[in-house]
């Protein structure tokens, strides 16, 4: 039976890997590992995972920080039921998955890709920026499964100008999501995610996280002419909700589409202004 492995990074998106019975897997930081774990507490070659024909076996490879299974420390474990494997301080959710369930997951992923492609086409065919924003926000909110989501426009100082999406954020100064995560997305000009905000080394002290008990959040910048002009932001107030690489890909696709729309609108406006000046000059 294959294993579904979710790598529960606290300060970024959650990758998902499927382990199959026909081969062994080496977990660690080294680029030669089968499952590469970019985490300071994980050794270069930390653990070996294999299927012995009956059970999945997990073996520690004399790592610096050891391994635990469901909080129990040891050198070797057998996996039969869903468990949390901890390498150093990094948690991995391991869940045996039947081939039928695996096929269902693959079909769902294929359906989701088609849904995203269809939504992007609809988004591109919108005649106005407002229509495109509405389409992008609604689809992103539905596919992310978040509790709150919005497109947040910023000024030249990266301060919030306006929000489009979550109704309670439409009023001035009403945004109560994680501004820390948004600032990080602006600073790095790259998507950022936190999948355990309550224990995140920066976010856990933020008033918005404490007040609303935000569990997970994601922010993806919209870049125009080399400058971040807006951020797609979403968060979840539910336990065990995690944002994945697929969510990042979705938001980045919408961010690129929005940037293209804004660029084309800017070109149209420049042509209109030029035409107006020529008309005034030549009568």
TrEMBL record:
Under the heading SMART domains, the entry gives:
FHA (SM00240), GAF (SM00065)
* PROSITE patterns, per database record: FHA_DOMAIN
- Report the Gene3D superfamilies cross-referenced here: 2.60.200.20, 3.30.450.40
| Positions of the FHA domain | 25-74
Alphabetical list of InterPro entries matching this protein: Cell_Proc_Reg/RNA_Proc (IPR050923), FHA_dom (IPR000253), GAF (IPR003018), GAF-like_dom_sf (IPR029016), SMAD_FHA_dom_sf (IPR008984)
User: Which Pfam families does this UniProt record tie to the protein?
Assistant: FHA (PF00498), GAF (PF01590)
List, alphabetically, the CDD domains matched: FHA
Q: Which PANTHER family match?
A: NUCLEAR INHIBITOR OF PROTEIN PHOSPHATASE-1
User: What is the name of this protein?
Assistant: GAF domain-containing protein
